[in-house]
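#struct-pred
JK: can someone run the complex with zinc ion? inputs below
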Amino acid sequence: MENKILEIHSKYLEKIKQANSLALLDEIFLSLFGKNGEITLIPKDFGKLTKDEVVRISPQFNQIKVELEQLIEQRREEVREEKYSKLTSDTIDITKEAQIDLPKGQIHPITQLEHEVVELFSKIGFQQYQAPHIDTDNYNFELLNIPAGHPARDLWDTLYLEEKFDNLDEGKLLLRTHTSNAQVRLMREAGAPVRMMIIDRCFRYENLDARHEHTLEQFELVYVDKTVNMANLQYLSEYFLKAIFGKETRVRLRPKYYPFVEPGAGVDGECLFCKGKGCKICGGTGWLELAGAGMIHPQVLRNGGINPNEYTGIAWGFGPERMAMLKYEISDIRVFKSGDLKALGGIK
Ligand SMILES: [Zn+2]
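RT: done, structure tokens with the ligand placed:
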């Protein structure tokens, strides 16, 4: 018994001395003074001792018990102090950049492109204008020379709202199919001369595939003044495409029909992929259709309260998604509204 107590004493003296954490000291405390701790169990064998032995061993045991208890407490204090002094002596440079490699967010590629385009046209005097996403048949079609039954309506199949309003017939409200619903509104509001740009969302009733989305962005310019002509249109097209795709980009205009312009033009840029030689993407032509434009139809100017004998105007626009697909070489338009951070985050 005596030897056992001395053994425990010397074994734990060393253990306590070397313990360098509070958790380790808690462990030592439990293995000595816990329910089945080595110290806790000793008195249970006192019954096997003679009276003389108990008188001799008991005070020695108590002394060792108290000593070990105190040593643990003392060591706890030391460990706490060591920890504290380490904390206070370590200087922290709060100006240093964090070493953690956190993923950084980035602006959506379409928004990036739109910022770029808005800045580009702000420089030459265009102001931003906003028109409603839900608009009347009148602003979206009628006033733009697309009356009910006109074949051109097939190009802009849309979604109609059944809401009834006091001053509107049922079915007169729709989700606008293009930003052109702004044209007559802004002419009526601002009059001539005017330079406005609209960059915003519009909607189509579409069969969705890699090239068609129900919700899409459009950019559109409306420029009305006394001497505006097709040369301005060529200039604006070149100004834009050279800025987005590089100074070497060649631009051509091709006759194209839109009901609200006369004449209308498809704006082609030299194919970015084959540099005009002809490839799969451009269908071997060497050109890509990038924008649509034209001289605003005299009737549309009249609808906007502008005299077509005095003023002429340009309407010019493109789809930011299609532009971004070419710029970033994306093959599926649906990726832009997918919320797929893996795809969107990888586009620089
Ligand atoms: Zn090509």
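RT: quick notes.
The chain has a mean pLDDT of 88.
The first helix runs from residue 2 to 18.
JK: thanks, will look after standup
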